[in-house]
Design brief:
566 residues; alpha+beta; Pdz3 Domain; six-stranded antiparallel sheet; five-stranded mixed sheet; 15 helices; extended; Membrane protein, palmitoylated 3b (MAGUK p55 subfamily member 3); SH3_domain; L27_dom; SH3 domain; L27_C
Length: 566
C-alpha cells in the first residue's frame, strides 16, 4: 500500500520527491510483488542521479546563461604558461595539472566553438531575383546541409505535365529532418541548375553526389500528404534482399538491404508497393525502402508462373527425412500425406512475419526448446547431456513406443510403452506431434508428454523432425527453435576422431551428404530458426547450448505477434 504523501513545495527537487515516495511504499498481501518491484526501481542510485541531472539542466535552462568570453582555451593556455614560470604552491600545481588534461582542453574548446557559433553551416546568399516563368507561381527556396548521407527523398516524372515531383520522403533523412520538403512538391532547380528536362535518374545522381549545402527551387504542393505518424509495426524478414540487384526499386541508393532473420520496423506503408523501414539495432535513424509484402508476393507469383525463379515458399506437406543415422534409417512422419509441387495460386510465400517482443515473466511456463538437426548433428546426445547437467531445471518429453520393454527400462522414464492399437488410436486423435515406424515398431512424441514437463515449471527439450514445427509453433508453446549442424570444412574429421563411435564408418561421401543435409534443412526451414549452433565437438556445443538456454529464459526475444496479443 502507499500512505498519504507528505506535503511538498514547488521547490522540492525530483530526487527528493522520489526518496519520499520510496519511503511511503509498504508492501501488503495484495500487491506485494508490484510494490516491491517499484521500491527496488525507485531505490536505484542511477535513478536518483538522473533526477539530480534533470534538476541541474532545468536550472541551467531557467537562467539562460550566455558565454562571458569567446576564448576560454587561449585564456587557459596563458594561465598555464604563467604558472610554469615560477615556483608553485600545492593548489597552483593542482591547477596546472588540471589545465593540461585533454578532457578539460576539449571542454574549453567546445565552449569556444559554441560561443563563437562556428558550428552554423555557411550558406550562400539568397538569389536577388527569380526566373520570369516563376514570377506568378509560389516558389520556395530550400537550403539543406547534407554530408555523405543520402538526401532521403525520391522523385518521379508526372506523366501528364512532365514535372519532376517529390514522390516520397524517407523518415529520418535530411529532407525529412528539415521539414521543408514534402511529398508532391515540384522540383525546378538543384544548386542553380534547371532540371526540368533531365531524367529522374540523372537528377538523383546530382542529388546523391552533392555535398555540403544544397539549394533547391521548389513549387510547393497544394496539400501536404506527409503527415502520417511513424508506425510501430515490426516484421521479421524471411528472405534476403539486395536493392542494387533489384531493377524495380525506384531508387537503389534509398533501398534497405537485409538478410533473412533481420527485424525491421516499418515506419510507413503509405505506398502500397514500397514500404519505408529501419533495421532494428541500426544506429542510422533514416528509413529506407523495402518491397511491400503485396508487391513481393505479386512478383514472386509472376516469376513462379514464368518458371524463371524458384520462389521461397513455406513447406505445405511432410518431406523426406533430412536427418538419419549412418548405420540405419528410421522412417518418421508428421501426418499422412505425400509431398507435392505447390500450386502457384495457393502458395504461402516466405516474405515477412509480423513480430513483437516477448518478455519472460516469473511464474510463467517456460518456452519450449525445440532442437532440429541435420545429418551428423547427434542432437539426442546433446539434449541428454543438458538434462544430465541440471535435471531439476530441464526435462525431456518421454516418447511413446509399441516395442517390448527391456529389462533395464522403466515405464515413463525411457519410454511410455503402449499397445499398437492404443498408439494408432492416439494417431487418429491427433495426440502426436510426430511419429514413425522402425523395425516394425511405432515411435512417437506426444503433446501430453510435453505438457507434463512444462506443468512442472521445467524447461522442456524436444528433438523433432522440422516438419513438426508447424504443429508446435503456437502461442501455447512459444517454441525457441535451435538448429544444430556439424561443422563441415577444413579439418572436419577432427570432430569424428578416435573417441567417436562414428569414426570408422564416416567417408568423404558421408561428409558431403552431411553438408547437403544442412544446406537443405536451412533452405526449407531456416525461416523458423531462432539460433544456429554449429557443432565443433560435444563439449563446446554443450557449453554454447547452455548459454543460449539461459538467455532464452532471461532476455526478451522477438516472436510472432500473435503469440503475445491477448
Amino acid at each position: 500500500m502507499i500512505e498519504a504523501m507528505p506535503i511538498v513545495s514547488a521547490s522540492t527537487g525530483l530526487h527528493e520527491i522520489l526518496a519520499l515516495l520510496t519511503s511511503q511504499l509498504h508492501p501488503d498481501a495484495n500487491h506485494k510483488e508490484d510494490l516491491v518491484f517499484l521500491k527496488d526501481v525507485f531505490s536505484e542510485k542511477s535513478i536518483g542521479y538522473l533526477m539530480k541531472i534533470h534538476e541541474k539542466l532545468k536550472q541551467y535552462e531557467k537562467h539562460s546563461p550566455t558565454p562571458v568570453l569567446h576564448s576560454a582555451s587561449c585564456l587557459a593556455e596563458d594561465l598555464a604558461e604563467e604558472l610554469q614560470n615560477g615556483p608553485l604552491e600545492d593548489d597552483e600545481q593542482e591547477l596546472l595539472l588540471l589545465l593540461s588534461t585533454p578532457h578539460l582542453k576539449a571542454v574549453l574548446s567546445a565552449h569556444d566553438t559554441v560561443a563563437q557559433k562556428k558550428f552554423d553551416p555557411v550558406l550562400p546568399p539568397l538569389p536577388d531575383d527569380l526566373d520570369d516563368d516563376l514570377e506568378e507561381e509560389s516558389v520556395k527556396i530550400v537550403r539543406l546541409v547534407k554530408n555523405k548521407e543520402p538526401l532521403g527523398a525520391t522523385i518521379r516524372r508526372d506523366e501528364a505535365t512532365g514535372a519532376v515531383i517529390v514522390a516520397r520522403i524517407m523518415r529520418g533523412g535530411a529532407a525529412d529532418r528539415s521539414g521543408l520538403v514534402h511529398v508532391g512538391d515540384e522540383l525546378r532547380e538543384v544548386n542553380g541548375n534547371l532540371i526540368t528536362h533531365k531524367r529522374p535518374d540523372e537528377i538523383s545522381q546530382i542529388l546523391s553526389q552533392s555535398q555540403g549545402s544544397i539549394t533547391l527551387k521548389i513549387i510547393p504542393a497544394v496539400a501536404d500528404d506527409d503527415k502520417m505518424k511513424e508506425s510501430k509495426v515490426y516484421i521479421r524478414a524471411l528472405f534476403d534482399y539486395t536493392p542494387f540487384e533489384d531493377k524495380a526499386t525506384p531508387c537503389q541508393e534509398a533501398g534497405l538491404p537485409f538478410k533473412r532473420g533481420d527485424i525491421l520496423q516499418v515506419v510507413s506503408q503509405e505506398d502500397p508497393t514500397w514500404w519505408q523501414a529501419k533495421r532494428v539495432g541500426d544506429c542510422n535513424l533514416r528509413a529506407a525502402l523495402v518491397p511491400s509484402a503485396q508487391f513481393q508476393e505479386r512478383r514472386l507469383r509472376y516469376r513462379m508462373k514464368m518458371g524463371s525463379v524458384s520462389a521461397p515458399i513455406s513447406p505445405k506437406a511432410p518431406t523426406s527425412s533430412l536427418r538419419r543415422s549412418f548405420r540405419h534409417r528410421k522412417d518418421r512422419q508428421g501426418s499422412p500425406g505425400e509431398a507435392h509441387t505447390p500450386d502457384a495460386n495457393h502458395t504461402e510465400f516466405l516474405i515477412y512475419e509480423e513480430v513483437a517482443q516477448y518478455f519472460p515473466r516469473p511464474g510463467e511456463r517456460p518456452r519450449l526448446i525445440t532442437l532440429i538437426g541435420s545429418l551428423g548433428a547427434r542432437i539426442a546426445e546433446l539434449k541428454q547431456n543438458v538434462i544430465a547437467e541440471n535435471p531439476r531445471r530441464y526435462g525431456l518429453a518421454v516418447p511413446h513406443t509399441t516395442r517390448a520393454r527391456k529389462s533395464h527400462e522403466r515405464e515413463g522414464v525411457e519410454y511410455h510403452f503402449i499397445s499398437k492399437a492404443a498408439f494408432e488410436a492416439d494417431i487418429q486423435n491427433g495426440k502426436f506431434i510426430e511419429y514413425g515406424e522402425y523395425k516394425e515398431n511405432l515411435y512417437g512424441t506426444s503433446l501430453d508428454s510435453i505438457h507434463r514437463v512444462l506443468d512442472q515449471n521445467k524447461v522442456c527439450l524436444v528433438d523433432v523432425q522440422p516438419e513438426a514445427l508447424k504443429t508446435l509453433r503456437t502461442a501455447e508453446f512459444k517454441p525457441y527453435v535451435i538448429f544444430v549442424r556439424p561443422r563441415i570444412g577444413d579439418g572436419q574429421r577432427k570432430q569424428f576422431g578416435s573417441s567417436s563411435s562414428l569414426s570408422v564408418g564416416v567417408t568423404d561421401d558421408d561428409l558431403q551428404e552431411m553438408k547437403q543435409s544442412a544446406e537443405q534443412m536451412d533452405e526449407c526451414y531456416g525461416h523458423w530458426v531462432d539460433y544456429v549452433l554449429v557443432k565443433e565437438d560435444p563439449a563446446s556445443a554443450l557449453a554454447e547450448l547452455q548459454v543460449v538456454l539461459e538467455k532464452v529464459q532471461m532476455e526478451p526475444q522477438w516472436v510472432p505477434a500473435s503469440w503475445v496479443r491477448r
